[in-house]
What we know:
Number of domains: 3
Radius of gyration: 27 Å
Number of strands: 8
Order of helices and strands: HEEHHEEEEEEHHHHHHHHHHHH
Oligomer: single chain
Structural class: alpha+beta
Shape: globular
Amino acid sequence: MYRKLVKKLLKKHFGPQKSSLTVGDRSKREDTVQYYVSPELEDQFLAVRDFLDQKYPKESKVRLPELKQDFPYSLTDDGIPQCAVYKVSGGRWSARFCTVKEVRYRNIGGHISADFELKEDYARVSDVEYSDFYGFWGEFPLIKDGIRCERNGVPYEINRALKASSRFRNFTVDFLLAISEKENRPILRHVASTISECGCFLPPVTYSELLNCRTPSELLGRFVKDGNSLDVDLDRTDINTGYVMLALLEEIDPCDRDAIAGLEAPAVSKSIDLDILYSGFSARMFVRNYYTNVLMPHYPRIRMYADDYAKVCIDRGEKLRLSADLRNLILAHEELINRYRTDDTVMQETPELSPGTAQGS
């Protein structure tokens, strides 16, 4: 299902269909395996291939050893080599999105050939029966507070790829929009918009739970706790931002509720890192990233202050601040640290009563 759609989107976002990983090869056959590599990336290595081809006469190329060139990540638009491998097997399709390990130059019939050598998949989607929404959704393991558990939602590997690769992100957004229209699933349009704005999808919901909702407010309603609500139209914000707002309510000082309600997608995106995508949402990590990447990105020690401040607050059951200025943040950090040390000193200096000791004796 959707085999033609997947091929069309791979061509749109990764490059023209080809039958091999040979640089510059434009052959196109309807094989069970097809490759999609950006021509702009290939052009970087054609000059090297042509230089070697012209430098060595045909008879010398026979003795020329195979040469390998590590793939320079700086050549890609966002730090990750771009290559998609599409395969059909048993009537089902799969698409692997790979990193490139190196480029190999070798003699083939008197001419120098340059070939990409793939390293590993950074994401995989397919229409296999056991996957939820073609592998974009499912149950996956994570480590939370040192304990292994299971979490539903967009798997970490998919979210990591969405964050890192603009090509994979755009492919996913277009795929979601197409399915939303074809199957009349309006919630998928909102998921696509969220991924486009934030580069990931955060709420821990199963795919069936997602499809039971038509609007973001229906989906996010499951995360609203008694007495905790914001004067915000959740249908007018992206799903990640709405989810973060609701998740912060119990951890943030009530005087900062306006700051929570004022969160927008760019700030939320900058505050969601791989730690949060792997372990699930954490107010401590979000606040640390929010101060570091949004409020005070140019202050070199802010990450240390914000991280220690958030940790001590949560350990002590204190409410976090989301709108403190630098001076107040440092003062709060030092106050909490000093209080923590004072409490520890009192505990160490307080003599313990033995089981048989009576008070006042």
